TrEMBL record:
CDD domains: ABCF_EF-3
Record protein name field: 2416_t:CDS:1
The UniProt record lists the keyword ATP-binding: yes
Keywords assigned: ATP-binding, Coiled coil, Nucleotide-binding, Repeat
Span of domain ABC transporter: 187-412, 471-685
One GO MF term: ATP binding
Coiled coil: 270-330
Entry-linked SMART domains: AAA (SM00382)
Amino acid sequence: MALVDLTNVTNLIRQSVPNIDDTIVEYIVGYLNETQSGGDGEDVITDFVRPILVDAGGEEERIQKLCERLSELFVQNSSDNTSNNNGLNKLEQPVNMLTTSFISATAGLVAQNVDLEAVSGRKVSTRVDTKKLEKAEAKIKSKMEKRERRSNYEASKLLSKKNNDEFLMQVNPILDYTTTKGKIKDVKVENFDISFGGKRILTNANLSLTYGRRYGLIGRNGIGKSTLLRTMSRREISVPTHVSILHVEQEMEGDDTLAIQAVLSADIWREHLLSEEKLLNLQISELEQNLEEFDEVTLEQKKDAANTRLKEIYQKLEEIESDKAESRALFCRPDLLLLDEPTNMLDIPAVAWLEQYLKKWPSTLLVVSHDREFLDEVATDILHQHSERLDHYKGNFTQFYATKEERRKNHLREYESQMQYRQHLQDFIDRWRYNAKRGPQAQSKIKILEKLPVLEPPEVEVGVTFNPPILQLNDVSFGYPNGPIILSNVNLSVQLDSRIAVVGPNGAGKSTLLKLLTGALEPRSGMMHRHGRLRFAHFMQHHVDQLILDMNAVAFMAQKFPGKIEEEYRRQLGNFGITGMTGLQSLKTLSGGQKSRVSFACLGLQHPHILILDEPTNHLDMDSIDALTNALKGFKGGVILVSHDERFIDSVCTEIWVCESGKVRKFEGDSIKQYREMIVPKEEP
């Protein structure tokens, strides 16, 4: 079977688009090579090749002629392959004709090749044009195969580490740092599109990264955040060539490589040059050991060529200070650092260290994360990827959330106002359109209505649903380092509608269990499943330690939850009985109950899915306990609490867990009263 000469294709592309990048040419030719046997060359060139060439800066007229020429080549190749078959095809396997008459209609329909007449044994009338049907099915099948080939080809470009490293070396050349000094290192890319696997990720998007700022990239799973980072690192969008890039991907292969060596290996140019140096030294050594196999002239030529290349390599290694790489590996400073989910698999101390390290990062940072606390600590700006676009917000995640909600409300008000105005015009038109006296006015209103722009309704975000269980512990055991086991073989699950009271003697591990549930403590053994998007609000028994006592309640909330106006903080505090001048008093002057109310007000601003409360009724008066009880009854989420207040437990909770002797079990009774009767011996009459 004759295939299209790809060298000829390469030359045609270069002639038509002289300034095209070598990498893009290689990508196009590689994809055409993968698909040329599929028989859909014309569609591939129109849908795949043409947009890439236009984006590469080619002239429309020359690209059109090139596409026509390529279509001729591939269509002719496809027809040649078809004509060579002479209408005969070799079967992949023998066919048992005896069994074909017993094929079920259902199986045939699934296989999409059923012959109803053969199955039923009678003539079946149909109005369907079988030729058109076959043609339509063939077209759909061709499109599906083409899409699959494109996805497989794009994926294959990412799977091979060797090919990926070679590609990255092409798009990230060794920089002469003396020539990059003084150049602007901001990244600004306008009106770009990104697609992957046949799916559009971004359309006509704009990206602006100011040098020295730290950007958090957020968006729903599968929206294309990792694809955007990969596209930037491969310079498939116009990132300036003098801006150095380091991309730390989300998933990395695990092996026994030393940590320092893994960091050094991320410098692909250094690794490549050192590998080539080793190979050249080996070649020179082999030449000297096998002198008798070569004449003197040939030997000298080979040694000179190897030594010349070796000298070039040493010069480049000296430029990138390879000998000092190990000492500066952990202090590498690319102009643009791309991090994809860096807090995954890190424990709390490691996350805290990373936060402090990145807060001092001197150049540009773009990090993908779903950790709100991490983004609040690190990010100076937020990029929200959604609906095939990027929206920029100043501030950390908490400020983004408040600003986004305000934008949504403003958009909704504007939309409703415009809809009312248009409805008013339409009502006037409907009423007076055919009236002789007011007909001209109605016609004028029609023209006004026609000239109004298309009104886009506000986007409605689809809510996230949690599949049970959202929080589960399986055979979990815990004990502090070098200490005894406090809890062993704990098995329990929590749902969004759970109302659970944890009871037991003091020192049995109730507070420890709550900290395990929130993730503040990690188990020694066992499995703990916690939904990735689950938000907790934890009221600690010693909650006063979390307050800054020299501040007043309003200022404390503004510091902890920035981005709101003072009236919102006052309103939230007022909901918990902190009103008037009390909100402006120093926290250390408030009573224990008032401090508890301030802590409860802070919990409400976290918008949690699960409330975890450790002795919440301590310091509260009766009225406050009643108010807290009613609030928890109306809370649309899960509640887990530790309390010694029996009335409070009976009013709020539907389940009781008993924590004692290092075990946690569910109490089978119906009320806390029954539990009390079980543990308190009856007095003898």
